[in-house]
Design a protein that fits this description.
The complex is a heterodimer of chains A (about 250) and B (about 575). Chain A is an alpha+beta fold. Chain A contains 9 helices and 7 strands. The chains are: A alpha+beta (about 250), B alpha+beta (about 575). The structure holds flavin-adenine dinucleotide (FAD), iron/sulfur cluster (SF4) (2 copies) and FE2/S2 (inorganic) cluster.
Chain lengths: ~250, ~575
Amino acid sequence: MKKGKVTVFRYDPTRDEQPYFEAHEFPFRPGIFVLDVANHIYEKIDGSFSFYSSCRNSHCGLCGAKINGKPGLMCREFATQEMTLEPLSNISVIRDLMIDRQQYEETMGGLRLFLDRLKEPASQPEKIEREDLELFKVASRCVECYACVSICPAFEENRHEFLGPAGIVQMSRHAVDPRDELNREIVAHSAGVLNCTLCGKCNSVCPHGIAPKTYVEILLSRLKEIGESLENHLNLSQRAVLEQRGSENEK
Amino acid sequence: MEKKNWDMINFETDVLVIGGGGAGAMAAYEASKHGANVMIVLKGRPQRCGSTITAPGAIAGVGDWHVPGDSPDIHFMDTIKGGSFLGEQGLVRIMAEESAEAILELERIGALWERTEDGKTYALRVGGGHSFYRCTYLEDRTGREMLRALFGELKKRNVRILSDTIILKLLDNGDRVAGAVGLEMATCEMVLFRAKTVILACGGAGNLYLHTDNPTGITGDGFSLALESGAQLMDMEFVQFFPLGFCFPPSLKGALATIPGYTRLRNSEGERFMEKYDPGQMELSTRDRVSPGILTEIKEGRGGPNGGVFADMTYHPPGFIARNLPALYQLYCKLGIDPEKDYVEVAPTCHFFMGGAKVDENWQSTVPGLFVAGETAAGIHGANRLGQNALADLLVSGKRAGRGAAQFSGETGHAPVDPKTARKFVEYAFRMLNNSGGSRPISLRNRLRLLMWDKAGAYRTETGLEEALKDLDELKADLGRQSITLTSGPHNQELLEGLENHFLVATAKCVIEAALKRTESRGAHFREDYPETDNDSWLEHIVLYEKNGTLNMKKTPADLREMTTSKETR
Ligand SMILES: Cc1cc2nc3c(=O)[nH]c(=O)nc-3n(C[C@H](O)[C@H](O)[C@H](O)COP(=O)(O)OP(=O)(O)OC[C@H]3O[C@@H](n4cnc5c(N)ncnc54)[C@H](O)[C@@H]3O)c2cc1C
Ligand code: SF4
Ligand code: SF4
Ligand code: FES
């Protein structure tokens, strides 16, 4: 067994003036996960080292952290012999690697994240084409780890005007549900979807291979359709954005 | 942290649901449908805690969409046989009849189950011990899909949800339940609930064992809370070991590695060894046969480098695993395993508790007003659970308990609760923050998990179990003196672990005592010193209850109202 070295972010806002970094050694073996290292620190070195994890198997979305600068799940990423561990960006830190998930969860409060429809199915199971299920299935894979939120430049720039990719995915799950009747595009609009720069950074970090940007694009193209028919209801800057996004989409 | 004059947060509700897995969420939904004022309290956060979110498999239930030949009757019989005739037949009948409607209801509130090629009906999976394909699913996230639909609906109905709160004690007024007290972990404040009825849905206790696929917070809280409140538990000796847990790396050890319906098992010689243990059903045999089979192969030297055997999924058409188990597929890729070419090394891991609170047909425990649903309740699975029956159980039991609690609440008022007494039950939590010199919760827990794995695990003997009892007593002495490193109260995971250890130890005691008493082998309970199943004297449940602080046991006959062992053949 070789020696590994990990530098961890430490911060207890109730005690520390500011965050600091701390280095620890750990027994390194190729193939161990970052969570093994975090557990090692907690169990063997310092019981006050704080992070959340629950399922150890990528389901609960709690163990997100910045690993060597890149957001990911600690239970899903290999440890490297030298590494740094920091909390995810863009969400307040509670202590060490713990972030305040409630803060982001609350931003999704107004999104009506349930099936909204008038029509009752005539009979059950209702017929649903398998291909109509695909986008729904992929969006359903989201475990709300917020890795994508932590790296989103539009969210970082103004969280009060843009919901961020995780919320977009949650909302889109209903937008692409063939049964849902609510006009989710309008909701997306008020959630600031026009602020997405389509940079695609979110796509590169999702542990479940979801591409949040794809859902932004779906919402935008639907919004564009509405925008055209409701031309006068959109202000000029909004129209300009839609035009620009539309042409980027075609590329 | 010195905390002397601490305040308490106070809530009042008709129905208090404790636990936010599938059973708790379903119960809360159902109770709210029946007009009760409902509140749900959970130790973690919604869709981030409990076993339900991790369940990849499917929900068993025979509806109009069934394959030719199948029926609720056959589902009933499969379940009774799978549970070695200890399943309560009245309850199993309810599950077999009502599960299909619950599956449809979840779709009405937003879940979507996988369709057949033509989109007209449900695609179905099978599970070990099921005679037919009868289980609906979505990818490898069936449990999460259930919860996503249920929590969406709870939000829509404005059901109050209190997260990050551990319940430490149920309150009663002598003859019925009156509420509960707990600790809000985010603020480290005491919370008092006054409720006309309580529904306990805290899941199982996988963390009692060294290797488990259960999430960290599944620590027997429900068993212990029920027992302490005067309710009876039963079948606590039956602990299921799932055959297919990962072997490496350490943080993944024990986590669920694949599902049985998609897997052939091979030993280091490449043999499909289930031929020796159950040639008829092979890998689709019940778990109480597959897990011991694997352990025997390993013991006899035909295991792999990490102490397991091999799960072979290479026989599927290309793309099959990626499509049907996308979350696991991502993980295999990460681990450098190509499931279309390579095997995955697997070993048994603690999975499920068949035992729990003894309940009636409304899932009401022996304490009036206290309902218990999901894995915390006993009855349906007898001595061994069939795959996919847990998700069916928690929907049906959640519904029954929710409805029963709403009715009960409609008929009574609040019982009085004395806040001063309530306060006493949480004081030990605050004391723990100030203790020093004791053992850390994590080291105490590791000791417990190891001792249970070695001495009260898949193979049991009288000597081993006696030793386990002795070790447990020693460990108990350290329980009250646990001390923790981090002394600030809010979000203190170590404090949480310390509190949970009390529940784990109480649960361990039940498992060991019942395992000692059952001098036969049946289902998941295997006694090396009594290897035979003894239907003459052991078609009986072991019932556990507390009286004046001591644990007592008695036997009650199994419910054989529809089917007896002599009629086993169909
Ligand atoms: C890895 C894995 C895979 C599985 N796969 C399948 C499958 O494919 N098919 C199948 O049928 N079954 C499966 N099972 C079994 C099934 O998922 C569980 O038995 C079932 O989900 C339990 O549901 P529950 O609602 O009873 O409890 P859980 O989902 O475990 O939820 C328990 C809840 O109680 C809360 N809680 C616990 N203690 C307290 C307390 N003191 N105070 C407040 N809240 C508390 C927890 O935070 C949590 O919210 C699987 C289990 C596991 C672990
Ligand atoms: S594509 Fe949009 S949502 Fe994704 S990271 Fe870039 S700005 Fe954020
Ligand atoms: S979309 Fe992916 S990265 Fe973003 S929260 Fe969901 S699972 Fe995490
Ligand atoms: S521990 Fe649950 S996602 Fe990592």
